[in-house]
TrEMBL record:
PROSITE patterns registered for this protein in UniProt: BZIP, BZIP_BASIC
SMART domains: BRLZ (SM00338)
Protein name stated in the entry: Ectomycorrhiza-regulated protein
Span list, region Disordered: 1-131
Domain BZIP: 113-164
Signal sequence range: none
Pfam entry (one): bZIP_2
A single MF term (Gene Ontology): DNA-binding transcription factor activity
Biased composition (Polar residues): 55-65
UniProt biased composition (Acidic residues): 94-106
Length: 178
């Protein structure tokens, strides 16, 4: 036996195999672009249109919105008299949104279920418009980021080229910490 307490027969060998092999990590100049939530949907046109039917409720378990046959907003609306509805409140909407609201509100003698379905349909349309606006805004931001990144890289390349040119002519150039 050696003085360190290990047998010279087993020195350098392991009973556990050759062990893990290490590979050098590959270094790339740029990381792949991050996928945003908007890449799931390729364009605003890929979203459901306003003419698509409202999906039926198919819940496996009762949800917070499907517990009651009559929604709470409808019960509250029945308690107080409704003011006459005017179309002057739509002045804040764009022309596209105004065109989508061609469906007439239910008549005064409509059943409660028809009124609930109408309200649900209006909410569905509003949600679809909101998703479309959000997607268009996100795509605009992503395009802006791409353009600014490209522009930044262009100016960085120009600055480094000019710095190297100054150094090659023995003109002092300040060092930038970047």
């Amino acid at each position: 036996m050696s003085s360190s307490g290990y047998s010279t027969i087993h020195a350098g060998r392991s009973n556990y195999g050759p062990g893990p092999t290490r590979t050098a990590p590959t270094i790339t100049s740029h990381a792949p672009p991050l996928r945003s939530a908007s890449t799931r949907r390729y364009s605003p046109d890929a979203l459901l249109g306003p003419d698509a039917p409202t999906q039926p409720r198919n819940y496996v378990t009762p949800s917070a919105t499907s517990r009651k046959e009559i929604p709470s907003y409808f019960i509250k609306q029945q308690r107080r008299p409704s003011p006459p509805q005017t179309t002057s409140g739509m002045s804040g909407m764009s022309e596209d949104e105004d065109d989508e609201l061609t469906e007439e509100p239910p008549a005064e003698n409509a059943t409660d279920q028809e009124k609930i379905d109408y309200k649900r349909r209006q909410n569905t349309l509003a949600a679809r418009r909101s998703r479309k606006r959000k997607l268009m805004y996100t795509q605009q931001l992503e395009a802006t980021v791409e353009n600014l990144t490209r522009e930044k890289d262009m100016w960085r390349t120009r600055a480094l080229t000019l710095r190297q040119l100054l150094r090659s002519h023995n003109i002092p150039c300040p060092e930038f910490k970047d």
